[in-house]
Specification:
- The protein is of the alpha+beta class.
- It has two domains: about 5-225, 3-Layer(aba) Sandwich (Rossmann fold); about 260-334, Nucleic acid-binding proteins (OB fold (Dihydrolipoamide Acetyltransferase, E2P), Beta Barrel), CATH 2.40.50.140.
- It contains ten helices and 18 strands.
- It has helices at about 40-50, 70-75, 90-100, 105-120, 135-145, 165-180, 195-200, 215-220, 225-230, 240-245, and strands spanning about 5-10, 15-25, 30-35, 55-60, 65, 75-80, 155, 185-190, 200-205, 210-215, 235-240, 260-265, 270-275, 280-290, 295-300, 300-310, 320-325, 330-334.
- Strand 15 and strand 16 form a beta hairpin.
- Helix 3 (about 90-100) packs parallel to helix 5, helix 4 crosses helix 5 (about 135-145) and helix 5 (about 135-145) packs parallel to helix 6.
- It starts with a strand and ends with a strand.
């Protein structure tokens, strides 16, 4: 493991922001810290960066103890959501700033800046100032500036949240492409599940200062460990054990044999609806979302959601029959 975090705890007076966090980041890995506002993800990132002290625990990078190492000594690249470009410097000067204060030769700085401008696909904008750039272009420059010093780890704090939807989707692919080409271990904070699912090798899903689950995007979506993870990553139907046993008995066989309380997380796309005058479920609402149609329906006293990638011919009030594959769903801790 490249970056190791052990029993990390951070308190603000009586509030526990991080509660005994344990996490390992592999070399060349892209990891997303995902969770709602106030869950501790930005606090964790700032502690990793050396910008905030912590109360107990340990951090190490490649075997080196980071606990007493200042932020400037860690050699990390950091990109914030506000870009933080110097307004009185050109694009080239912003990118080369970190090398300049390290007193690198002028020729070496120029060569590195040119290399990075090509990498971020903005070679023609070297002499422009930040106010002359779009939001997406400014974020590219901020990333290039962080990469200029050849960081051992790249830290991204909600870098796309200030961008509009179309630019955000474009930047996701570009950041991921740059990270893979350079092979830099990267940790990104986000509250956007789509960003985490499309960009990360692994997702660290956080809630109330603890890690609920760590895994690949596929693992967290198809096999969420807790009710929180199931509900935060994608849409789901959470069904009690009693309800499943009564109405979907074919799914109860997968219930873990433990004394803990579980619910079934059933994804909307795992439910198939068919118009049926004798059906036991009734459609209550249909929402057209472009690539999918979301159908809300009431079945055996429960309000559920189904999704289809085809335009739904159903209408509110229609009776439908319900079909669920026997392998669908995942049992999650309550």
């Amino acid at each position: 493991m490249y970056l190791t975090i052990q029993n990390l705890t951070k308190r603000f007076d009586d509030f526990v922001a991080l509660d005994a966090i344990n996490l390992e980041i592999r070399d060349n890995e892209f990891v997303c810290l995902l969770g709602p506002s106030g869950c501790g993800k930005t606090t964790l990132l700032r502690i990793i960066a050396g910008l905030m002290p912590f109360d107990s625990g340990a951090l190490s990078l490649g075997g080196r103890d980071l606990t007493k190492m200042r932020a400037t000594e860690r050699g990390f690249g950091i990109v914030f959501q506000s870009y933080s470009l110097f307004p009185n410097m050109t694009v080239a000067e912003n990118i080369g700033y970190g090398l300049k204060i390290r007193k690198q030769p002028r020729e070496q700085i120029a060569a590195k800046v040119e290399e990075l401008l090509t990498l971020i696909r903005l070679p023609e904008l070297a002499d422009r100032y930040p106010h002359q750039l779009s939001g997406g272009q400014q974020q590219r420059v901020a990333i290039a500036r962080a990469l200029a010093v050849d960081p051992s780890v790249l830290l991204l704090d909600e870098p796309l949240s200030a961008l509009d939807a179309a630019v955000r989707m474009e930047m996701r692919a570009e950041i991921r492409d740059v990270q893979q080409r350079l092979g830099i271990p990267t940790i990104m904070v986000t509250h956007d599940q789509d960003e985490a699912l499309t960009m990360a090798d692994r997702i660290v899903c956080m809630n109330h200062g603890v890690i609920d689950q760590v895994g690949t995007p596929h693992e967290l979506y198809t096999r969420p460990a807790t009710r929180f993870v199931a509900g935060f990553i994608g849409s789901t139907n959470l069904l009690s054990r009693h309800w499943v046993r009564e109405h979907l008995p074919e799914l109860i066989r997968n219930l873990p044999e433990t004394p803990q309380l579980f619910e079934l997380s059933l994804r909307p796309e795992d439910i198939q609806l068919k118009a049926d005058p004798q059906g036991t479920a009734r459609v209550t609402q249909i929402t057209y979302l472009g690539n999918i149609s979301r159908v809300q329906f009431n079945w055996e006293g429960r309000d559920l959601i189904a999704e289809t990638h085809r335009f739904s011919q159903l209408q509110p009030g229609d009776l439908v029959s319900v079909n669920v594959d026997s392998e669908a769903g995942a049992w999650v801790h309550v």
